[in-house]
Amino acid sequence: xxxxxxxxxxxxxxxxxxxxxxxxxxxxxxxxxxxxxxxxxxxxxxxxxxxxxxxxxxxxxxxxxxxxxxxxxxxxxxxxxxxxxxxxxxxxxxxxxxxxxxxxxxxxxxxx
Length: 112
Prior knowledge:
By secondary structure, this protein is α+β, with helices and mostly antiparallel strands. Helix content is 29%, strand content 31%.
């Protein structure tokens, strides 16, 4: 958040302020997804861009690897992956409709 406050290119930003409806295939209900950030900035050419940003550990962005036994933790990982995919598909659609860009940022993108 400090980055957003101090970067002169960022014109506006917010954290978990936007709600996107999505269908959860896990519990078969409509739910609401709150992306981590929205950012409006002017790029180097002065063009204003809008982004929805989700920050997740990389392991949550990949399909879980099936183990020899189906454990409770494996089933939880599968449900989390399915839920994330549904959320992110809804976010992609929202961004297409509004000329925004959806980004998923992992620890590999962040300076630690």
